[in-house]
Design brief:
The structure holds two protein chains of two kinds. By secondary structure, chain A is an all-beta fold. In chain A, 0% of the residues lie in helices and 59% in strands. In chain A, strands 2, 4, 5, 9, 10 and 11 form a six-stranded mixed beta sheet that branches. In chain A, a hairpin with a 2-residue loop joins strand 6 and strand 7. The relative contact order of chain A is 0.34. Chain B contains no helices and eleven strands. The chains are: A mainly beta, B mainly beta.
């Protein structure tokens, strides 16, 4: 089955700096890759997603890149703000179910 | 729509007791997922339903765990008997179709003492 690895597990940045989180997946049949943000006491919420026919997607300060050959995808957050502090999860869809990475705790210091 | 609704938000129970977690998916969604979240294991998929039918329950840890979806607007996850190692946050999520967003509920924090 699908296996998703995510790095780093924790990330601390200064406000205004960029943050990058990386994930790899194992099954080349996976073709949908969402990113979720989870704030304390809440369920994960989708922030951006990418499908396998696209190499990059951007939404304001957030961008995701996908390299299908290497089986890895990354989340880029530019001009980070304190409200970006949360746990971020990558996921890969395989046979109709989402397999999640282990999460990255991002802390943005003012 | 109010989103995915889970109840209760918090549950504290004694070891050996039966626990039932409830979920109301978003109206019109035909996929429903149960996840368990712990510090050690992250977000684990327990079971998912499509059109009220269980499709994959390979993530259900033991026979003590069971899930049902009697209709399109309701699902339950039952643990009987509960054990301290079942303590976790349990999330229900629903989705419209393949390769689209899964919407998560607020979760149920279960503590088994």
């Amino acid at each position: 089955g699908e296996n998703v690895e995510q790095h780093p597990s924790t990330l601390s940045v200064q406000e205004g700096d960029s943050a990058v989180i990386k994930c790899t997946y194992s099954d080349s049949a996976s073709n949908y890759f969402p990113w979720y943000k989870q704030e304390l006491g809440k369920g994960p919420q989708l922030i951006i997603d990418i499908r396998s026919n696209v190499g990059e997607k951007k939404d304001q300060r957030i961008a995701v890149t996908l390299n299908k050959t290497a089986k890895h995808f990354s989340l880029h957050i530019t001009e980070t703000q304190p409200e970006d502090s949360a746990v971020y999860f990558c996921a890969a869809e395989n046979t109709d179910k989402l397999i999640f990475g282990t999460g990255t705790r991002l802390q943005v210091f003012p | 729509d109010a989103g995915v609704i889970q109840s209760p938000r918090h549950e504290v129970t004694e070891m050996g007791q039966e626990v039932t977690l409830r979920c109301k998916p978003i109206s019109g969604h035909n996929s429903l997922f149960w996840y368990r979240q712990t510090m050690m294991r992250g977000l684990e998929l327990l079971i998912y339903f499509n059109n009220n039918v269980p499709i994959d329950d390979s993530g259900m840890p033991e026979d003590r765990f069971s899930a049902k979806m009697p209709n399109a607007s309701f699902s339950t996850l039952k643990i009987q008997p509960s054990e301290p190692r079942d303590s976790a946050v349990y999330f229900c999520a629903s989705g419209l179709r393949k390769n689209t967003e899964a919407f998560f509920g607020q979760g149920t924090r279960l503590t088994v003492v």
